[in-house]
Hints:
mainly alpha; Glycosyltransferase; 3-stranded antiparallel sheet; 15 strands; disulfide bond; mannosyl-oligosaccharide 1,2-alpha-mannosidase activity
Amino acid sequence: MFGGWPSRYATPSLSCDLLQPYKYNILNGSSYSHIFHAPSRSDIHTLHRSYVPAWSIFNAPLVLRGRARAMLADDAEWQIHRSFAIIDDAMTALFRRRARLLAIVFTIVVFYLIVIFVPKRADTFFGFAYVYSSYDWSQHALKNPPSEPIKQLPTGAPSALSDIQYAFNTDTSPEGAVREQVLTERRLDVKQKFLKSWNSYKDKAWLYDELQPVSGKAKDLYGGWGATMVDSLDTLWIMGLRDEFYDAVATAMRINWANTDATSINVFETTIRYLGGLLAAYDLSKEPAILLKATELGDMLYMAFDTPNRMPEARKGDLEAGDHDPSASVASLGLEFTRLAQLTEDNKYYDAIDRVARLLEIWQNKTSLPGMWPTYFNMNLMQLDTDQSYTIGALADSLYEYLPKMYLILGGLEPLYEKLYRSAMDTVNSSLLFRPMTPDHVDVLFSGSAYATGDIFNLASEGQHLSCFAGGMFGQGGKLFGIPEHVIIGEKITKGCVWAYDAMETGIMPEVFNLMDCDTLAPCDWDQDRWEREGNSSLTKGFTDARDPRYLLRPEAIESVFLLYRITGDQEYQEMAWRMYQAIVKATETDLAFSSIDDVTVTGETVKSDSMESFWTSETLKYFYLVFSSPDIISLNEYVFNTEAHPLLRPKPLG
C-alpha cells in the first residue's frame, strides 16, 4: 500500500485525529497524565479503518504496538510511561515532516527560478528553442497612424476560380515508365546540385546572407540574418530534406531582427526573401513557431508604412516616403502582407498594401502610356516620375507579376486586380512586345522597354533575363481570367527566352541584350543588309549586342518554362529545361557550389564572379526540381508563388 515499505508494514495505523490531542498539549506544556486516555471501541474501529498519514509513515509500527499494549494493560503507571514513547514517536515524525517540507519547498523554488531564466521555447513537436527579437515592433507607437478605418480583408467564401494547372493523367504505358525513370534521374541530379550548394553554405557561411562560391568567404547584403538559410527553407521541404529543414528552422527561430549591422534595410528584398520564405515554410509545415517569427518580421516591415501619407519607404526608414523609388519595390509587397494578414487575422498588413493598390488604380490611366506605370514613383508627393520610362523588366517586373497573383491569394474576392491586369497587359501587348528578326523566322516574342520624348515613344528592342518572368505571368493570367490569347503570348515569350539561351556559346542568355526587330508582331523577312549595318558578327544572327553579358544564376527563364509546362502539359518544356540546366551547371560550377559568370558569350572556360545570391537555392534550383517532379507537388491550383518562388497557400472555395 505504501511504496517502498516491506509488506509486513502495510497495515492500518493511527489516524491524524487520534494524535492531535498529544501534539496540541505537548506544544502547550500540559501534564501528560491529564491528556492520556485509553482508546474506546470507536477508537479501535478507527484504527482498523485508518491508514498511515504522510508524516507518520516511518514510525507507524512502533506507535501501533504502543497503543495495542495500552489497551491490554491495567497498570495506569505503565500506561503513562508508554504514552511517553507514543509522544516521542509523534515528535520525531513531526520534525521529520518539517525537514521534508522544507526540502520540497526549496526544490520547488529552485525549479521555478530555472524555468523563469531558461529561454522560452516554442510549443512545437520538434521542440526547437524560440528566441524573441529584442525589440517588439508590434508595441511600437506609430508616428503616423492611419487616419481612416483599417481596410478589412475581403469577406465571403473564396470564388471557385478557373483551374490554372493542366489536368495531367498518369501514363501507365511502358514508354511512360521509361520517361518517369528519366525524370527521376534528372530530379535527383538537381537535388544533388542543391545539396552541394547548401552544404557549402552551411560549412562556410552559415548565418551569413550568402556564400562566395569561389573564395569560400561569406557576405551580408540583406540584414545579415541568414538570407540563404531562410530563403531556402521551402526548397528543403519540397525536396524532402526534412532533417535539414528542421535544423534550419531551429536556427531561424533564434533570429533577432533587431540584431543587424545594417543602418537601413531594403524593404522589398527583406519582404520577398525573408517574410515570403517564412510564410511558405509555415504553409508547408504548419509549424506555429515559424508563423510567430514571420509575424515579428512583418511588424518590423510594417513600420515602412509609418509615413505621413502611409506610402512605404523602400529603404531609408526615415518616416518619409521616397521620391524616386523603383515601382516594383513599393508595389510588390502585396502577396506577403496579404498572406500574413490571412494567417494572423490582423488586417493592418492588408490595409497597408491596399492603399498602394488604390493609388495604382488612380494612376493607371493618367500616365503618358495609359495602362502602364512608369519605372519610378515619387511616393512622397504621390506623383508619377518625370523620366517616363516603361518596362516589365528590371525595377518594375514584379509590380505586374503580382496583379493576377493578388487575385488568386484573395480568392477572387477583389476585382480590382483583374481590372489592373487586363488594362496593363493590353498596353504591354500594343506597346512593348516585339518579334525578333531572324533568318529562320523563329516564332517567339520579347518584351522591350519604351521611353517617352515629349509625345513620342521609342521602343528599345531589348531583351532582359528579368523580363522572362512575363511568359509565366501571361500564361497564368490567361488561364485565370479566360483569355486564351494570353496563354499563347506566354508561350511565345517563354520560347523566346529559351531561344536566347540556345543562341549563346555557353547555352545561357545574357542579362541584357538587343535584337533586330520586325515592324509588327507578325513574321517578317530577314534583312541581310540591315544585319550587316546593325548586327554583331560574334553573335547569332538577330542579336545586335549583348549589352550586359553576365549570368547571375537568375531564375526567370526556368520559372516561365516550369509554369508553362504546368499550364499546358507539353513535355517539350521539360526538354527545354534539361538543356538549360545542363548548360548552367557546366558554365557556373565551382569546387564549392555555383557562381555567377561574367560573360555568357565566350567560348571555353567562363570567368566566375564569386557570387551566389540566395535566389539560386530559393528559386532557380527549385523550379528545375519542380519541372521534373510530379505535377501534384505544389499544384498551381493550390499555391501561388511569390516573386522569390515561395509557394503561398491559396484560400479554398467552400465545397
